[in-house]
Design goal:
The complex is a heterodimer of chains A (100) and B (498).
Chain A (H helix, E strand, L loop, with lengths): L4 H10 L6 H18 L39 H5 L5 E2 L2 E2 L7
Antiparallel strand pairs in A: 1-2
Chain B lengths: L8 H10 L4 H13 L7 E4 L1 H17 L9 E5 L26 H8 L3 E6 L44 H8 L5 E6 L5 H7 L2 E4 L19 E6 L2 H9 L31 E5 L9 H16 L3 E5 L7 H16 L19 H12 L2 H13 L5 H22 L5 E5 L15 H5 L6 H5 L4 E8 L5 E8 L4 H15 L10
Parallel strand pairs in B: 2-3, 7-8, 7-9
Antiparallel strand pairs in B: 1-3, 4-6, 5-6, 5-10, 9-11, 10-11
Helix pairs in contact in B: 2-3, 5-6, 7-15, 9-11, 9-12
Classes of the chains: A mainly alpha (100), B alpha/beta (498).
Chain lengths: 100, 498
Amino acid sequence: MAIDQATVRKIASLARIAISDAEATAMEGELNGILGWVEQLGEVDVTGVEPMTAVIPNTLRLRDDVVDADPLTGGNRRDDVLANAPEPQHGFFGVPKVIE
Amino acid sequence: MTDLTNLTVAQIRDGHRAGDFSAVEVAEAFNANVAGAKALNAFIVETPEHALAAAKQADADRAAGTLKPLSGVPIGMKDLFATNGVQTTAASHMLEGFVPRYESTVSQKLWDAGAGMLGKLNLDQFAMGSSNETSYFGNVISPWRRKDGGPNLKEGAALAPGGSSGGSSAAIAARLCPAATGTDTGGSIRQPAAFTGISGIKPTYGRCSRWGIVAFASSLDQAGPMARDVRDCAIMLQNMAGFDAKDATSLDLPVPDWEAALSGDLKGKKVGIPREYRLDGIDPDIDAMWDAGIAMLKDAGAEVVEISLPHTKYALPAYYIIAPAEASSNLARYDGVRYGLRDLPQGAGLQDMYAATRAEGFGPEVKRRIMIGTYVLSAGFYDAYYTQAQKVRALISRDFTAAFETCDVILAPTAPSAAFGLGEKTADPLAMYLNDVFAVPASLAGLPAMSVPAALNREELPLGLQIIGKAFDEQGVLNAGLAIEERASFTARAEKWW
């Protein structure tokens, strides 16, 4: 199923990536090339096969239900969390005004 | 005095322990090589002071009798591992200037073991690529150069060091560091190791914690070491692996002493040769190397059996659905709000800021994969693409399980060709993807796999052999690698031109 320019724009919008007309044109060809190639997976008989969910069997653990169970990732590290923010304001992440 | 930068990790460790040289001398020698190799563009950030501080500590520890497993050994750190106080970029514009306030588990383990850091190594942007050409900071150039390769191949042209761990591979091959970390999602340790004549191992999925590694495709990403020989890979790996409560997929298993159990004697072992890996029209040098490798393992006492991995041809297309799908989800975090780049056009709202930031911060290959991933996960296409790929992945994994009923390890080429020239494959994304045709199946199945240098081709470029093992059997992989290493006697190295 080939994708067209409108679909490329829709995907870009879903992915939150701004694209120019020239990029959309180039991307249409590239994405169709890749998607056409992966179509061959349709040949494989997967009757009765469960999709893989874990590559190596492992059990999911629960950590202790306490505050700051791991000091390295625990709370009270606001300054560290904000250290790389492009625009921290008053101890928060700053974003442009949102008006709905 | 011998050139300290020619020593392996084991030789540095043992020589330092014996008092043959100081750790500071070692660090200074490698710092000088790093500083003199700008032409290779292997490092994004150089940290000579870190290497020197660790060396001083190692010398003090020797005097105090408190040496650690990697005391005196300086290493390179792929710039995908978060390093506290040192810029971590994943070779992207998006994370340019990002200075973590925490340390990845794997790098912390290495520092705890006494290693020092020479710098942060260049890579393909967000580890997406097979040639290092997607790095925002310019591609790494391989120290290797072609000899006469016929009319189509320009002699002496700049070659790709492989990818994504291309800074790691080039730096080790050029003696800028004795060992380095890599990460492997679909071949990113093994293919660059093969391209540059060094060794590298991707352990079983879950052996090394992913905590603090910039995420690409979380069900596939796995850290591992790259070094000049098998022993050094074993030493590095046992200082990188181990359970970590901060990674939900971390394996809660003891870390074996892989170095102590190294043995190139393969008596009683069976080596499987997958018939589906014999590709029509493949470079005859690759097939010749593979046959030579089979003879070497027979010589080491192994029995060779033919095996079948029937779904091999579907591994690469399944990978190029699963990996981009996971990438599109993982890379959604780059929104211009919490860290990294922000591009806020005049008068733009929040949604426009996201779109502008991501347009500016991601390179073309990263955008392409996010777009593919977004598409295959979108409503109406999820089952046809993503679920189908995960079913095929289950079949690929079953192929290996069945094959390992008749063999202990699998031997195959690492890559379908030797290193290619920069720019030779950039026009066609699919041609680039095909580089990982032999590497991706083991990644999809989460199995340990390594590349060891085996031969030079007709252009005098290195070729690598790959050994794939059962889950958790890194020892079997390392031992088969050692058996090849002992017989291939690969001593070639790139002549210094940089």
